[in-house]
Design a protein that fits this description.
Number of helices: 16
Structural class: alpha/beta
Strand content: 15-25%
Length: 587
């Protein structure tokens, strides 16, 4: 949540560099945005409400700037609540990501000493607190002292105009530093400056970094003592963060799924076998994730029961904290996350580590908090995912989990073949004639107020994920259900013309799902089948060749396309849906 970017160096177009960086981070926040520069005498700030898009700026030349794309957590969406904020003397500017839980007490304290606030946010407290702490000490020490007083999960980036510095500190929210030649960068995601430098420093919680144009200094926030820096090299390609010829990032990322799946089939054998050995040794295996990642966890529960005859547990990441009293050093936690920064996952993983349980991360973002805190990790390798609604990271998770379930039984070669078959089927789905068919079906249901999706067995979590995608980007109320639950209340919602999407693969669930579809049709439902064969109950039908467990991976791609084209027909932006941000870094 919220995109942070900063530049300090030998170029005088710092504001423009920062604007371009923020455009790459807009997926993290797009309520409003702002940039601050130092003009040699005081801070100059420009703020706007809405998306950055093709925005231009009128800020003066400067060699130092910081900028922010906001996803509102405190205070309404307005120019006055957009970041950055400055102190009373306009010598300091600050960006903030997180929630300052004790801001009310701090604000009252600062007002009593004469500080004047211009916004309704908790964030502005931090810049005035630094200004207050600056009396009688160095700027570095003032930032340290102020940051230590902030309660909650927070990251701040501070522009010290007179001192020609950018200082950042974090506890929970991500901060990455890019090391250039006579210039340095800072951001909430390395993707923002990947075309400038591949050499990065990932800040850990409790760390602060001081940037000038020539050097960096890493500091322990608690002690103020300088620490040794660990620099890493970022390998993602620039083309992965560009839309290319695609209208939206989401569509581009849907089309990238076949190569992601093949990469996993061809290159993940050793990692997956090692993790399968951990599962066989564990006394209890728990998959945790939030949103889309939780649906992958639930998919794993069905996979392991069916393929490996092994019981595993799937839990929503935000609820796992309330279910971990039984954890022991023999427990295995497998945490799934695209960003690796989800606050609820980070908190749960931290508590599991404190209980000395073994934790493995399935994560897509190199250097993320989850990536660095777990005992072992598998990097999903899906590449940059810029659209807020996850697509290719989800199919990457399903692919790794399918291999993993077969690896537990010693049949990883069969798992690989299933993935190759799924890849081939997705390639067919993405052919022009099939896209045209899916668009035609989608246009028919684009005015619907409700859409219901059913599945059984491993298709049930796929139905849940399909509903989430539709809700996320088209704002149509969609619900996924286990087909057997229809008669327990759900069917009361079906009326004449209600679109009902049916996942009906060639497995033991087929008959039960078709029976559910017939019940929905009898109440007037418009039935869209996603299946290996046509059935008379379907009003419309998308063919998925039987790929065993891979049928679910191919099936969700059809649902992603339906969700995407629903948003397009409704003239919505599928990349940046309202009220949502890519990385949920606050609780």
């Amino acid at each position: 949540m919220c995109g942070i970017y900063g530049y300090i160096g030998n170029k005088t177009n710092a504001a423009k560099i920062t604007l371009n960086g923020l455009k790459k981070l807009e997926y993290r926040g797009y309520d409003s945005w702002g940039i601050a520069v130092w003009n040699g005498k005081h801070i100059v700030i420009e703020k706007h409400v809405g998306k950055i898009g093709e925005a231009l700026i009128s800020l003066p030349k400067s060699h130092i700037a910081i900028g922010h794309t906001r996803w509102a957590t405190h205070g309404g969406v307005s120019e006055k609540n957009a970041h950055p904020f400055f102190d009373c003397q306009r010598k300091i500017a600050l960006l903030h990501n997180g929630i300052i839980e004790n801001y009310q007490d701090l604000k009252q304290e600062l007002i009593s000493t004469g500080h004047v606030f211009s916004s309704d946010t908790d964030s502005e407290v931090a810049v005035h607190l630094i200004e207050e702490e600056l009396k009688g000490t160095t700027f570095k020490n003032a930032v340290c002292k102020a940051f230590r007083r902030l309660e909650g999960l927070n990251a701040i980036v501070v522009l010290n105009g007179p001192g020609n510095q950018i200082i950042a500190a974090k506890n929970g929210s991500p901060i990455v530093v890019g090391i250039g030649t006579k210039e340095n960068f800072i951001g909430s995601d390395a993707l923002a400056f990947i075309e400038k430098t591949r050499n990065v420093i990932f800040l850990n919680d409790g760390e602060m970094i001081v940037l000038s144009d020539k050097n960096t200094r890493l500091i322990n926030v608690k002690t103020g003592i300088t620490k040794k820096q660990k620099r890493e090299h970022f390998k993602w390609k620039i083309e992965e963060i560009e839309k290319g010829d695609f209208t939206h990032f989401m569509l581009k990322e849907i089309y990238e799924q076949p190569k992601v799946i093949r990469n996993i089939a061809e290159n993940f054998t050793n990692q997956v076998i090692d993790l399968s050995d951990e599962i066989k040794k564990a006394f209890g295996t728990y998959f945790i994730g939030c949103g889309t990642a939780f649906h992958a966890c639930l998919f794993a529960q069905y996979l392991f029961a069916r393929i490996a005859k092994t019981h595993v547990n799937a839990t929503v990441g935000s609820e796992f904290s309330y279910l971990m009293d039984f954890l022991t050093p023999k427990s295995l936690i497998i945490a799934l996350s695209q960003s690796g920064e989800t606050a609820d996952i980070i908190e749960s993983v931290g508590k599991a580590i404190n209980k000395k349980s073994h934790v493995v991360g399935l994560v897509n973002t190199l250097g993320s908090t989850l990536y660095r805190m777990v005992h072992e990790r598998i990097l999903l390798g899906a590449g940059s995912e810029n659209a807020v609604a996850s697509t290719k990271a989800f199919t990457a998770k399903l692919s790794v989990l399918t291999l993993l379930a077969y690896a537990v039984t010693g049949r990883i070669k069969k798992g690989k073949q299933i993935l190759i078959n799924a890849e081939g089927e997705i390639e067919k789905i993405l052919k022009k004639e099939n896209i045209a068919k899916i668009k035609k079906i989608t246009e028919k249901i684009s005015s619907a107020q409700n859409i219901f999706i059913i599945g059984r067995g491993q298709s049930y979590p796929i139905a849940l994920e399909a509903a989430l995608k539709i809700k996320e980007i088209s704002y149509i109320h969609a619900e996924g259900f286990a087909a057997g639950e229809l008669k327990h209340g759900v069917i009361a919602l079906v009326e004449k013309g209600t679109p009902c999407i049916i996942f009906a693969p060639n497995d033991e669930t087929y008959g039960g799902v078709i029976s559910g579809a017939m019940e929905m049709k009898a109440r007037g439902g418009y039935i869209i089948g996603i299946s290996f064969k046509k059935n008379e109950v379907f009003n419309d039908y998308v063919h998925i060749r039987d790929c065993w467990e891979g049928s679910s991976i191919a099936g969700i791609v059809v649902a992603q396309l339906i969700a995407y084209y629903l948003a397009v027909f409704k003239k919505l932006d599928p990349d940046k849906p309202r009220n949502l941000a890519k990385s949920v870094t606050v609780k």
